[in-house]
Amino acid sequence: MGILLLCGCSCGQTSSRANPPTSTNRVWDCSETSCYGKYSGPEFKNGEDVAHQFSNTMALVVGDKLKELYKTQNYTVVDLEHITMVTKDMDGVGDVEYTITIPFLRVQDSCDAFTSFDHRGGWGHTPKLETVLTHFSKVKGLRYYFHKTPEGLTEYWLQWRSASLQSKCDY
Q1: Residues 163, 54: Cα–Cα separation, whole Å
Q2: Distance between terminal CA atoms of the chain?
Q3: d(Cα 162, Cα 58) in Å, to the nearest integer?
Q4: Which pTM was predicted?
Q5: What is the DSSP string of 101-124?
Q6: Cα 168 vs. chain centroid, distance in angstroms?
């Protein structure tokens, strides 16, 4: 039996999302310059890739932070190329530590900002880019970047302009 291969948040969702659940094994912190997160615990629980699901949490946190910054006229984009992901002790059977830093860059114009953020990836495999892009086929102005840890966590990190928040912008 295979492992769930694609995880992610609701593609193209522009409404305010609920805060991600907190627990002692998941922490995150955001500033005007970046978001940092850390998951420590089992890779899998009841057949679910709970460690990889931390990427869902980080996508929610970053998307909410981008919107918050935008609303205070701190126009921002994720520096996709400089996202760092580290997986320590990823072996498919035990506990793992997954840390991620998602840096931001300031931009001058509100229409240069990105206010939506998501991911598609795999814990020990790489999804096809065509499959990833299919999930975001209705998103205009999509930007993405691929990252992989030496142990095999793969992620396409994606950002775009929220149609409702940035409706005056040309895509």
Answers
A1: 26
A2: 42
A3: 18
A4: 0.85
A5: EEEEEE-SSGGG---EEEEEEEES
A6: 25
